[in-house]
Write a structure and sequence with these properties.
The complex is a heterodimer.
Chain A (H helix, E strand, L loop, with lengths): L19 H6 L1 H4 L5 H10 L1 E5 L5 H11 L3 E5 L24 H12 L4 E5 L8 H6 L3 E4 L4 H14 L3 E7 L2 E7 L7 H4 L12 H4 L4 H19 L8 E6 L4 E6 L21 H4 L16 E2 L1 H9 L4 E5 L3 H6 L5 E2 L5 H4 L8 E5 L4 H12 L5 E4 L2 H8 L8
Parallel strand pairs in A: 1-2, 1-4, 2-3, 4-5, 9-13, 10-11, 10-12, 12-13
Antiparallel strand pairs in A: 5-6, 6-7, 7-8
Helix pairs in contact in A: 4-5, 4-10
Chain B lengths: L1 E5 L2 H4 L7 E5 L3 H11 L1 H7 L10 E5 L2 E2 L15 E6 L8
Parallel strand pairs in B: 1-5
Antiparallel strand pairs in B: 1-2, 3-4, 3-5
Classes of the chains: A alpha/beta, B alpha+beta.
Chain lengths: ~400, ~90
């Protein structure tokens, strides 16, 4: 059941016409009856707010600017990191270390100097979300964490603004439009977030760089369709994309009549504490609550140099071992319970992973299994690279 | 009835790395039970301690959300596809 748009998202016509330059710039839009002067003027008068200028925000910003969205707001407080360049194509190598907003503004203004770019270098929160979103017609969610997704959703429903949603994980993506009048919101689909730590981040799970490119482009496409009022929008539809199989699937999304935010009797009528809602208090909750014995890279190096007999247990995955290793014995964490009998508890064992988190879990597990001569390499192979051997590549 | 259960990426590590699993089942509940019997690690990711499906995981039969059908009692037909769709957000540490 596709929702045919009966009317596009209202964009008050403040600009009456296109300049000669604009007519030429957008000629490929203008010669299509589906867009034409009317459609292009709607784009010019549209105000779109992008939450996040990262993997999803990169193609999104580029294509919305290219299309001539008259006013583009961007919310992002982050700095360009070297590891972003694998997918955040708004930025170049020379932008590493710069504020994302500064670099994005420069890139987008160069692409299209006709548009107005507003930047909000702030973390979106319950205190500022309603004020920031208020002036825009459409919000596009390109964020990277659950609390902000719920915040954006709730703010959009409270303000009556459509929320063009996209999300990714490794090689799968989702897209939809939430908060459209009569349509479902994000909470209709997912009333509750997963507990922290259950769904890995890009840094932990990895992501095919081009994947947010595809989903971000889909978000841009849906935003433009909403503005010009053409085609069938992803309202009430969850688009699922599997990059490896190159398959698109679609699931029906229904508005939940008992939705606490957009239902007939909403219980959420103002923005809440989303960090609490998602089970995170203040800073990140540490992975292990039991303190495990630790050894620093320098201490380990000293002991190895002394000739001590230490069994190095590497609990990473085979593909990580190929990137760099300490010549340890590879026991991927997931296999450890099945293979624990291969370990000799009379030997001294130092467990390591990339950053010390997974190996901490391994040490906890082995302690419970009765191992005594076991410790965790603090900071993992990353710290080894920093403190002992810089020739070991970091990843 | 022979049905296919599609395992989403975040959960494949708990389901023997399979993208999909073929099962015999009469209802969605049967299929999920058979799945978690075969892959016991999957259970805690799909179900909370009180035995209810976790609310950040949605289950569809073909393209319909089971919450709007008969939930786990939804009957399945030969060749139906059951999709497990968890919420994902990419990016930063959750």
């Amino acid at each position: 059941m596709a929702t045919r748009l009966t009317q596009p998202v209202p964009t008050p016509a403040t600009e009456p016409a296109l300049s000669k330059q604009e007519v030429l710039r957008y000629s490929r839009h203008l010669i299509m009856p589906e867009v034409g002067m009317d459609g292009q003027l709607k784009l010019k008068n549209a105000k779109v707010l992008m939450i996040g200028s990262g993997g999803l925000g990169a193609p999104l910003g580029l294509y919305l600017a290219a299309a001539g969205v008259g006013r583009l707001g961007i919310v992002d407080f982050d700095t360009v990191d070297f590891t972003n360049l694998q997918r955040q194509v708004t930025f170049g190598t020379s932008d590493v270390g710069r504020k994302k907003l500064e670099a994005a503004r420069e890139r987008l203004a160069n692409l299209n100097p006709e548009i107005q770019i507003d930047t909000f270098e702030t973390r979106l929160s319950s205190d500022n979300a309603l004020d920031i979103l208020r002036d825009y017609d459409i919000v596009v969610d390109g964020t990277d964490n659950f609390p902000t997704r719920y915040l954006v959703n709730d703010a959009c429903v409270l303000l009556g603004k459509p929320n063009v949603y996209g999300s990714i994980f490794r090689f799968e993506g989702q897209a939809s439009i939430f908060g459209y009048p009569g349509g479902p919101c994000y909470r209709c689909l997912y009333p509750e977030p997963p507990p922290p730590g259950l769904v890995p981040s890009c840094a932990e799970g990895g992501v095919l760089g081009v994947l947010p490119g595809i989903i971000g482009c889909i978000q841009a496409m849906e935003t433009i369709k909403l503005i010009i009022g053409k085609g069938e929008p992803l309202v009430g539809r969850l688009l699922l994309f599997d990059a490896l199989g190159m398959r698109f699937r679609e699931l029906k999304l229904r508005k939940n009549p008992e939705c606490p935010v957009c239902g007939a009797h909403p219980t959420v009528t103002k923005l809440i504490d989303y960090a609490e809602f998602c089970g995170i208090r203040g800073e990140e909750v540490p992975a292990q609550t039991v303190s495990v014995p630790e050894i620093t890279p320098k201490q380990l190096k000293q002991r190895l140099d002394r000739g001590d007999d230490i069994y190095i247990l590497d609990v990473r995955e085979p593909h990580e071992y190929q990137i760099c290793n300490l010549h340890g014995h590879l026991f991927p964490l997931g296999d450890l319970p099945k293979r624990v009998s291969e370990l000799d508890s009379s030997r001294e064992i130092v467990a390591h992973c990339r950053s010390g988190k997974r190996s901490g879990e391994a040490v906890e597990f082995l302690l419970k299994a009765g191992f005594r001569k076991i410790s965790n390499l603090k900071g993992g192979i990353l710290a080894w690279s920093d403190e002992v051997d810089p020739s070991v590549p970091k990843y | 009835m022979a049905v296919k259960v599609i395992i989403p990426t975040p959960l494949r590590q708990f389901a023997g790395k399979h993208e999909s699993v073929n099962l015999e089942a009469g209802t969605v509940g049967d299929a999920l039970n058979a799945l978690t019997l075969q892959f016991s690690d999957l259970k805690k990711h799909l179900y909370s301690d009180d035995g209810r499906l976790r609310s950040f995981v949605n289950v569809y039969v073909n393209d319909e959300d089971i919450r709007y059908l008969q939930r786990e009692k939804t009957a399945v037909q030969q060749g139906d596809t059951i999709s497990i769709v968890p919420s994902i957000a990419g990016g930063a540490k959750a």
